[in-house]
Amino acid sequence: MSIFDKIFIFFAQTKISTGSGGVNIPTRSAAQVLEDSLNLVYFVAGITAVIAIIIAGYTFTTAVYDPVKITQAKNTILYAVIGLIVVVIAFFITQFVMKNL
Question: Which residue ranges of the chain lie beneath pLDDT 50?
């Protein structure tokens, strides 16, 4: 048995007590942490898509007869909406998978 095995066994057998100080140690599973992380990613992606749509809408309304800006704004809105749809689909797929684990 190597020294690393002994250290691993020592830490594996160590118990953590909260004592009277009220230290709260989170006891979340890996699936819960993964689900929360994915929800954060989906939230950030959704906010980013909405901001992109707002900026593209502003660009579209201020592009006075400039076909390049109008095309850019239309493409930005299109890609942001497609990205938002992909995020929503990914959210529902991961929610379905997480509930059926």
Answer: none
